[in-house]
Design goal:
The complex is a heterodimer of chains A (199) and B (342).
Chain A: H1 14-21, H2 25-47, H3 50-65, H4 78-100, H5 126-140, H6 144-156, H7 160-167, H8 171-188
Helix pairs in contact in A: 1-2, 2-3, 2-4, 3-4, 6-8, 7-8
Chain B: H1 3-14, H2 20-31, H3 35-50, H4 64-71, H5 78-82, H6 110-136, H7 138-233, E1 238-244, E2 252-258, E3 263-269, E4 278-285, E5 289-295, E6 303-307, E7 318-325, E8 336-341
Antiparallel strand pairs in B: 1-2, 1-8, 2-3, 3-6, 4-5, 4-7, 7-8
Helix pairs in contact in B: 1-2, 1-3
Classes of the chains: A mainly alpha (199), B alpha+beta (342).
């Protein structure tokens, strides 16, 4: 593996996951280097709190090390698996938190400000940079209403009924927006082979 | 929900937007093994997993990696406890990806490591004992080794002897094979001879049959001759001479007949060879001709005919031979070749 892709999250080798399962410390360290930035970004986006996001990441990596969470090569790329795992755990935390604190205290309105910064980033590797550009472009080309519905579902764990209530729109409209948005993303990202499954 | 509704639900499920009841129904549908929904879900989940790439990247805290690396030690169970909370997203169908924590999986435990260490000590101790025992038994083993070598040499000699025997047997077997091949060749020749002899036998049988046929003919001729001799011995026998007509001028015949026994015997000679489908017929004539029989001349153009019963012989005054169609006719239809009066 060359140095340009050594830290790219989008090109994590399934063999690396196998080495981690075998207890290879170096492989585990490399997995962290390749994936932690994206997973932390995701956790922070969902939880809105750096400490909590860091805590979540710690839990997830320890689960992987202790083989509590196991990667299955038949379910997609390693990074897709890690993203799905992180989102799932973060949404769990979000819901647990919402059940303890009154709603609206730290609720976040859908923001359009988190589109990727196109300026050079020291944590970004070329392979990831291209993927970020592709995903950013695909999201930017979505109608705002569709992107908003997708983000509320994905980052805030809201069901289409919750989103409809939040946006004061009919449920059918929200479902249509999500479906249209996902279909457009799927078509736009069909060529992103580095992630393996979006084809 | 019907299949089309499940298909519609795939993108919603992938992004986590389904209600709990719909999600459970969809997961049940997936568990039923619907291949198209599985394939579609795989695609949409891959798309959903790309969404975080649309976020502005934020590096994790600097000390997080060191903290995680340190927390991997089993002496720090706090993190393991924290991560044991069940996940509700994206649903039961994905639970194989995120199974709950199990304390039995944090292997090796202290107890297990103790057991392993004890087992290791046992192995080392056992190996040492075996080594010491072998050292003590070395002279005895040397003697035993010599005995074994002697036995091996004996067995080698036996083996060489056996190999010689095998070679001799092989040579004998080869000779037997050659002998067998020679015998096979002889049997083949005998078989050919037998076939030739069988063919000769067939010929001989055919000749015998021919001879028997000739013998029968001879016996018939002999019987006729006996009849003729008997006829000639009759004192009442009469003789009629037949002469050839214009059609057979060189031909002639002799007819003997006995009025008492009504027997007659015709002997004809120099008759022309019969055309195909024709026969000679003898007529006894009084007022009109009466057939006395048909005959065929032999290769010497000699014809013989024995008539055992001629009616009204006393009134016959002429005999004639005509050429008739095969089988004869009730009345003469062909030309007269021989004729003679009493």
């Amino acid at each position: 593996m060359d140095t340009s892709s050594r830290h790219a999250s989008s090109v994590i080798d399934p063999k690396l996951m196998a080495q981690v399962v075998k207890g290879d410390h170096q492989a585990f360290s490399q997995l962290y280097d390749q994936s932690s930035a994206l997973l932390f970004t995701l956790a922070l986006r969902i939880l809105g709190n750096r400490d909590e996001a860091a805590e979540l990441l710690q839990d997830i990596y320890l689960e992987i090390w202790r083989k509590v969470a196991r990667y299955d090569v038949g379910r997609g790329t390693p990074m897709a698996w890690l993203v799905t795992l992180t989102r799932s755990r973060a949404i769990d935390r979000l819901r647990a938190r919402a059940s303890k604190t009154p709603p609206g205290v730290d609720s976040t309105e859908p923001s359009l400000d988190h589109l990727p910064d196109q300026s050079p980033n020291p944590f970004e590797i070329q392979a990831d940079h291209e993927l970020r550009n592709a995903v950013g472009k695909a999201l930017a080309e979505l109608p705002e209403a569709q992107r908003q519905a997708l983000e509320l579902a994905y980052y805030e764990g809201l069901s289409h009924t919750d989103i409809a209530a939040r946006l004061n729109q009919p449920v059918g409209t929200i479902k249509t927006r999500i479906k249209l948005g996902m279909n457009k993303l799927r078509a736009a990202l069909r060529g992103c082979s580095s992630q393996g499954e979006a084809r | 929900m019907i299949h089309e509704e499940f298909e519609e639900a795939v993108p919603l499920y992938a992004v986590g937007a389904l209600e709990r009841t719909d999600r459970q129904a969809f997961e049940a549908h997936l568990l039923s093994g619907c291949p198209s929904c599985h394939a579609a879900l795989k695609e949409y989940q891959a798309v959903a997993a790309l969404l975080p790439y649309g976020l502005a990247p934020t590096p994790p805290p600097r000390g997080l990696k060191a903290k995680i690396m340190a927390a991997r030690s089993p002496a720090n169970p706090e993190a393991a406890k924290r991560s044991s909370q069940p996940s509700l997203e994206p649903g039961e169908w994905m639970n194989h990806l995120f199974p709950p924590l199990s304390s039995t999986r944090s292997f090796p435990s202290n107890a297990a490591r103790f057991v392993l260490a004890f087992a290791g000590l046992l192995v080392v101790a056992g190996a040492g004992y075996v080594g010491w025992t072998l050292y003590l038994q070395a002279p005895a083993e040397t003697e035993r080794l010599q005995q074994l070598e002697t036995a091996l040499q004996r067995e080698s000699a036996k083996m060489a002897s056996l190999q010689r025997e095998i070679k001799e047997k092989e040579a004998a077997l080869a000779q037997l094979r050659q002998e067998l091949e020679r015998r096979d060749a002889e049997i083949g020749e005998l078989r050919d001879t037998l076939i030739r002899r069988e063919a000769e036998l067939d010929d001989a049988q055919a000749q015998l049959a021919q001879l028997e046929k000739h013998g029968a003919a001879f016996r018939r001729v002999r019987a006729q001759q006996d009849e003729i001799a008997a006829l000639l011995r009759m004192p009442t026998v009469k003789v009629v001479s037949l002469s050839g007509s214009d059609l057979a001028k060189g031909a002639g015949g002799l007819l003997l007949y006995d009025p008492d026994t009504k027997k007659a015997w015709l002997y004809a000679f120099n008759l022309p060879p019969l055309p195909g489908g024709k026969t000679y017929q003898l007529w006894a004539i009084e007022q009109k001709p009466v057939s006395a029989g048909t005959f065929t001349p032999d290769t010497g153009q000699k014809g013989r005919l024995l008539i055992k019963h001629l009616p009204d012989f006393s009134r016959i005054n002429q005999f004639a031979v005509s050429l008739e169609p095969a089988g004869g006719r009730p009345q003469p239809t062909g030309a007269i070749y021989l004729s003679g009066r009493l």
